[in-house]
Predict the 3D structure of the following.
Amino acid sequence: DTAVSQTPKYLVTQMGNDKSIKCEQNLGHDTMYWYKQDSKKFLKIMFSYNNKELIINETVPNRFSPKSPDKAHLNLHINSLELGDSAVYFCASSQGTFRGGNTIYFGEGSWLTVV
Amino acid sequence: AQRVTQPEKLLSVFKGAPVELKCNYSYSGSPELFWYVQYSRQRLQLLLRHISRESIKGFTADLNKGETSFHLKKPFAQEEDSAMYYCALSRFFTGGGNKLTFGTGTQLKVEL
């Protein structure tokens, strides 16, 4: 059973297009995240949602819009794709309800290439 | 503000040699620290968290608040340890969830 699954795994698209990456977790967690790993392997949080509510929004361009239809899903929609958006996008989840020892579980990543 | 520093971008050791991956942090509160490992083109996997004080795959890490460090150590490196290692600092949000701030990562290469 895959705990955090995201689709598609690979996505090649042209500049200016709009694309979505979907994420689902079956761990019963309350909190979900999107992280971005750039070409230099730097990892940075983009968003987090807790029970469908936005908690963290890390100065991401508003071309990126997360949507959480329920607490098991957090999708990422990107408008007007730019070359600089090429990266690996990781979805993740955690229990999120208490401080201390909150392990964050990551999906396998979605490799986005904008040409 | 929270910050994590991993000074080595690449660490190359021979099989059987000791390994130490350095991690320093700055954080005004009580830190919660983790080590994550990423094998080639795979997901990030939790390796260690300082709260549990466990040893996974022979790796250990001790939180040193005086030196603000959380170095990852293994006495004898194995070929399968070759991977990217990230140190991360967690901050809890009262609205729910945690924000992980990652270091820049250290690529460990174990040579035969």
Remarks:
- Residues 13 and 114 of chain A are 5 Å apart (CA to CA).
- The radius of gyration of chain A is 14 Å.
